[in-house]
Amino acid sequence: MSPTIFVLAVAAAAGAGTAPPAAWLLARAGAPISMPVAGVLAAVGVTAVTARWPAWWLPVPVALTAVGVPLALADVRHFRLPDVLTLSAYPLFGAAIGVAALGGGGPALAVRAVAGALVFGGAHAVVRRLAPHSLGAGDVKLAGSLGAVLGAVGWFALALAAVLAALFSLVFAAVRKICGRAPPAPHPAPAHRVPHGPALLLATWLCAVLPGAP
């Protein structure tokens, strides 16, 4: 087995290994997800970033994948972003960004991350304040930690992620309307409601792994 294949195999196993604890935490929070699906998606995501990026930046997209996959699945199924993961994302992403800054990104990366968290989280808080039905409280809590990742990537990523998330939500709404999917019990939602968390997470993940990231 070549070293590259071995590293990717380890990355896939590590990604899959993040699913059981996340699924357990979400089940305790009343938002169970499919552990096999979470494991496969996390394995694919972690393998993809491991194959692409230098070691110093890896902690950031890996942490984002580990938290983002189960949160997205929970929001799609239950229309919820439980605090057990949304709030845990702050110290986890903060630690990952700190490692990246020390490993090669420099102090400017950490400064941008803090500013990004304030700007992105603050912008979503303002939107919820002005239009309470447009965003959930979980979306606002999630936006702060995602803003830290986006800020670490660069200022352009904040605007790009906001636009991408809006587009992804529109696509999800169209697919949901075509498929006629109803909100699952015991968390009924208005027919027009679309979970925005998965769109935010996917947009941030793409900004963190596509060309132009640190």
TrEMBL record:
The chain crosses the membrane at residues 53-73, 85-103, 148-175. It comes from the Bacteria. The keyword Cytoplasm does not apply. Residues 66-168 form the Prepilin type IV endopeptidase peptidase domain. It holds the Pfam family Peptidase_A24. GO terms for molecular function: aspartic-type endopeptidase activity. The keyword Hydrolase does not apply. GO terms for cellular component: plasma membrane. InterPro entries: Prepilin_IV_endopep_pep, Prepilin_peptidase/N-MTase. Keywords: Membrane, Transmembrane, Transmembrane helix. GO terms for biological process: signal peptide processing. Belongs to the peptidase A24 family. This is A24 family peptidase. It comes from Amycolatopsis iheyensis.
